[in-house]
Amino acid sequence: MFVISDLHIGDGSPKDNLCQAGRETLLDGFLDHVERQRGQLVIVGDLFELLRYPAERILTRRRPLLDRLAHLDSLYIPGNHDEAAVELANANRPAHPFFARTSTAFTRTIGPKRFKFMHGHEVDPLITPGIQTLGRLLGAVGTRLEFRSGACLLSNDGVTEILMEAGEQLLRVWQLLTAGLNRAAHECCSLMPPEQVTSVSRRIRTQRMLNRYCQDKQHGLYDVAIVGHTHKAGAAGDWYFNSGSWTGNTNNFLRISPAGEVAVFDWSHYGPQRNDTILAA
Q1: Cβ contact 69:41 at 8 Å
Q2: CA atoms of 83 and 237, how far apart (whole Å)
């Protein structure tokens, strides 16, 4: 079994993430690899970037890719950036056969362990309906600015990430103010450079999510969590594995053996390379 997430595919325009850094070719090579291994592909969310692009445009431009994913009998769990895909899956006549394999988070026994497959936003304390609405608004505004100026402002991965997380940052600031968190932490953050504040807040957020996964595991909901969402590939012990993303300098995936052994990899033009990143639990 092979697991990927967070490709944030758009409509094929220059700012589309898949059009950057040769990712179309890399993805084709990865899918060739999955097919040669006779593997099953599971996509755990944010395959599409539906906060910025109309679904119709993506379906038109990316039909060959959807054809191939359907041929691989891929399982697809929508994330917070492509949750509108659920509507396509639930339609009387799905827009494409690929969506017939759309699923919510699910648990499956592999070897001796129970695996929970999910995107990860389900346990993110910062993902709320309000933030989702704000994210769509920001995405629409950014796209309009690009088309009017004729520029590809969002073709830069860093700028794209900043825009898409702007709503979450606003909520984070609001929570810091209204929750009355200790003043010392607030004063410390005010002395930090903005990029350092962002780095610290992301680590805190990731830690909170890892704690939630760990609690659910201890409550017997599953033995192993297979997730995406944070764009940070790696593992925590033998119970948490993140499939990373295809939006940064590396393109990540997970491989799960029939015995339930999980490994993290990066995909490049040279094929799979082991990724031993350890995420603090």
Answers
A1: yes
A2: 30
